[in-house]
Amino acid sequence: MSYLELLRLAAPEAIVVLTAFVVLTIGLVTGRREAGDTPAATAGLGALVAALGLAIAAATIVRLPGHATLFHGMLVVSPLNSLFQVIVLVLAFFTVILARGERLLPNKGEYLAMILLATVGLMLLIGSEELLMIFIGLELTGLSLYVMTAFDKASQTSAEAGLKYFLFGSMASAFTLFGLSLIYGFTGTTSLAAIGPRLAEQALPPLLFVGIVMTLIGFLFKIAAAPFHLWAPDAYQGAPVSTAGFIASGSKVASFIVLGKILLIGFGPVSGSADWHGLIAGWTPILAVLSALSILIGNLVALVQKNVRRLLAYSAVAHGGYTLLGLIAGGRAGFSATLFYTTIYAVTLVGAFGVVGFVRRENGGDDLADFAGLRARSPLLAGCMAIFLLSLAGLPPLAGFFGKFYLFSTALRAGANHGLLWLVALALFGSLISLYYYLIVLKVIFLDENAQATPAVARYDFEMRADYLPKMTLLVLAGAVLLLGIIPGTLVARILASFG
Amino acid sequence: MVTLGDYLFVSGLLFTLGFAGVLLRRNLIIIFMSLELMLNAANLSLVAFSRFRTNSLGQPNYDGQVFVFFIITVAAAEVAVGLAIIVALYRARRTTHVEDINSLKF
Amino acid sequence: MIAWTIYLTLAGALLALLLPRILARWVALVATAGGFGLGLAALFAQHTDFAHFTTIVRVPWVPALGMNYHLAADGISLTMTLVTGLTALAAVLFSWKVENRPNEFFFWLLLVVAGSYGVFLSADLFLFFVFYELVIVPKYFLIAIWGSTNKEYGAMKLTLYSFLGGALVFIGILVAYVTAGTLDLLQLTQFQFAPQLQAWAFPVLFLGFAVLGGIWPFHTWAPTGHVAAPTAGSMLLAGIVMKLGAYGALRVALNLFPLGFQMWSKWIAVLAVIGIVYAAAVALRQNDLKFVIGYSSVSHMGFVLLGLATANVLGVSGAVLQMFSHGVIGALLFALAGAVYYRTHTRNLNDLSLMGLSRTMPFITFAFVVASAASMGIPGFSGFAAEITILIGAWKTFPLAVGITGLGMVLVAAFTLRALKKSFFGDQTGGRVRQETRVPNGAATLAEKLGASLLICATLAVGLYPKLLLDRIMPAVETMRFLHR
């Protein structure tokens, strides 16, 4: 395996890293102004370069060979990995566009570079089937996201959110690392493909099981499953809006695909069963309990939220719980259901946070009250938000509905004699609760009048400088959510086909 | 003779100490040091496994040692990011105590 | 051809949203009139196979999961399509004067109608459920934005109940899907599910549908929802949405799990009878005109459930006829109550009784008298034809229920007459009709006259010649597999 070959197969990642440096340089060369705001033109240039780099990387992935493995799985090119790397790149692309509006941020170049570096981390996470590389991807993503979360120096909450995210995140990755060391110790390998057979051929030592559980903690933290969700509300609320959107979308997609690979490829032999009558020890019952806990805690706590971003965070906890259903069901069908759901969820949340970003810029806040009368001010944003939230609630003909149907039907089919019915019923009950709080947000948007008159300046900003590009992006995202609901077959077929 | 079990015991102890420190301490810097302790506990167990899991020729399994080098690097990056966030927070709040960092809740 | 009802209505919904506000109501009128016309043409076409659920369209949708875009129709679904078109057209006519955000109003309204058409014509369980859930959110907005009296509470309650019912239906559908491995209704109605499975899956599925059908004790969303809704909203709720539940129970729950149905049918009959009597008794005590009609809806839907529970051809055909009949009569009653409210700004029976409305609103009074007569089950109107068919059917299976239901019918007559007298023929002696309470613009508008006449003609036509529909309903019922033979 020559280094040229390595460069060829790792070209997408390399392109994104290079773009990150270019964007950083652009930011440095154009310099910082005392006023704190980079001139619009250079910020636009940086964003343009970043978007271009992401697009080129995506195009490169498409041209990669179908299957290739480098260094015992350090980097694996497969249809599945390529598909999801492209999806993550697309999500990063939308984040870059929506971050254009993030006017509060000085040092735009550094911010964009951080988005790109986080994207590289996500690509490595997806593209690797080796514990060491997965750990590095996890850390690269995590560190970039911590910095992005704390990036807004003008806001007090941003640094606080960043710190909390950092502390919880580091602790979770320490757990994962310790778990990985135990897995390595007992199987003598760090390659996922080799771990599975080794686990199958021996009785499970207790310490190895501890290792597996500790490893899972890090990923459950990333997907914000209860009780490892405590960082999520703070990070979603305090971070710059585009960062929150990226944490909720790109980071989640990559985490789910890695979690799925680790569980189904690596730990497949010790899965156990979470059937109502046929409980078998393994990681499945643990995941089932955490999934149930996430659904309950996420939905119930979301009921009392007054801040839309916090509400989205708690609903994200609940959606993490739903998405785990596919992994609990296991197998190709379950994994593909999970991947489908997490993809459409990511698209939806990028859009929802995009709308939140607009409202925040106009009203200076993102509490429920700031959304009052949004319909009258901007029918477009209100309509998009309605599509996003109703999709999250799982109503047809939007993507979330099909996603739930897919997830729940595979979960129900997995256990013998409908063994997972209890979890499906719980998830449906959770959806019922979630419909209530999503409708409350929509009620505020469509019914309530704006109590306090908007300051004239902000209003001017909103009307006149309203960037068309982000608005068009939101429209595209809303259209995607609708289309994925009406014709989900294409994406489903693609995911299924990518398993080979 | 020091066995693998002894190393793992020490490693587990370090990890527990670090975890307890993160949970119980109130000063951010100390919490930070405890986090590093947890990472180093993993390093110790990786090295120990690497030394004791020999192959048929009696050579250690070097994967674990390579892993450790990466962890040390990552930990250094983590320190840089973490301290930067703490400094940013200190500028805004003039404190490094977790009790005072409570503007976001529930 | 009949599939175009869905597309036409959906296209109308989009156009109503996007075109200038002055055009929205015309778009809605054209779309609903078109749907009604298509429904009429399909139901009274020659050489149609009413007995079998005949495929109209079938194209693969999500092949990986076995979903098809599959529409089919038989006599039952065509009857329901017709009542949908009829009610929708009348609802648009009665909301001709909506001035507040008309684009959105007609958008949501047409979405409800399109979803209902879809439910009645779906032959694929997933498609069925998509349409079934599609109706939920438009209802919320219709009520919460354009409603009255406690509208946000009523809207939320109705939506959550609908969604709760939907969740139960979802479980039932999923279980059927993963057990039989297909979503095709035509195949599922041939599949033999294990009796143990049917024993628990049937009540889950049936209850899910029955929540929307207004079964006691899960009916409480109906009165509050009806009261809170705008006129067109109540008309659609009573005329169409409650039928979705009953139709789903008949088409899906009973046909998928016939053994489960056998085990539970007497409990359904018990709940239905309780519903009939209880709702009628509660209606007798209400002072809000719309509450009275709302509870009468629950009572009438009790007849539908009783008819289904009989599991014989007469009873079930009567239930379908009652769905049609109550769709028309309920919509008419709500439309007239809305017309009264629009002019007097009150629905309180005691206030209305002081106004002497029979003199100031002659047409509306006349129409309300007709509607009340139909609602009470006077021969000559569709209500009588439907209820007598159900009771004859029930006589064979549940003789006791018929007796208790008779009491319910007396109560229905009582509260209907009470509401009629208080609201239109109030105490007018000795100039107690004060000048300030007199209603200035009592005359019905042309749109209202058209809408009311349409519904009155429908109930009369079916009442005088029930074979018109029964000839098309009964063959379809006879082919269903859950009947006792």
Features:
heterotrimer; A: 500 residues; mainly alpha; 21 helices; B: 106 residues; Helix Hairpins; 3 helices; elongated
Describe the structure.
The complex is a heterotrimer of chains A (500), B (106) and C (485). Chain A is mostly helical. Chain A has helices at 3-9, 11-30, 40-62, 79-99, 108-127, 131-149, 156-187, 192-201, 206-222, 231-238, 241-266, 283-302, 308-329, 331-363, 374-377, 379-393, 399-414, 421-446, 456-464, 468-486, 489-498; strands spanning 68-70, 75-77, 273-274, 279-280. In chain A, strand 1 (68-70) and strand 2 form a beta hairpin. In chain A, 64% of the residues are buried. Chain B has 106 residues and is mainly alpha-helical. Chain B has one domain: Helix Hairpins, CATH 1.10.287. Chain B contains 3 helices and no strands. Chain B has helices at 4-24, 28-52, 63-93. The termini of chain B are far apart. In chain C, a hairpin with a 4-residue loop joins strand 1 and strand 2 (67-73). Chain C contains 21 helices and 2 strands. Chain C is mainly alpha-helical and 485 residues long. Classes of the chains: A mainly alpha (500), B mainly alpha (106), C mainly alpha (485). Chain A binds chain B through residues 132, 135-136, 139, 143, 146-147, 150, 153, 156-157, 159-164, 166-167, 170-171, 174-175, 177-178, 180-182, 184-185, 188-190, 207, 233-234, 237-238, 301, and chain B through 8, 11, 15, 18-19, 22, 28, 31, 35, 38-39, 41-42, 45-46, 48-49, 53, 61, 63-64, 66-67, 70-71, 74, 77-78, 81-82, 84-86, 88-89, 92-93, 101, 103-104, 106.
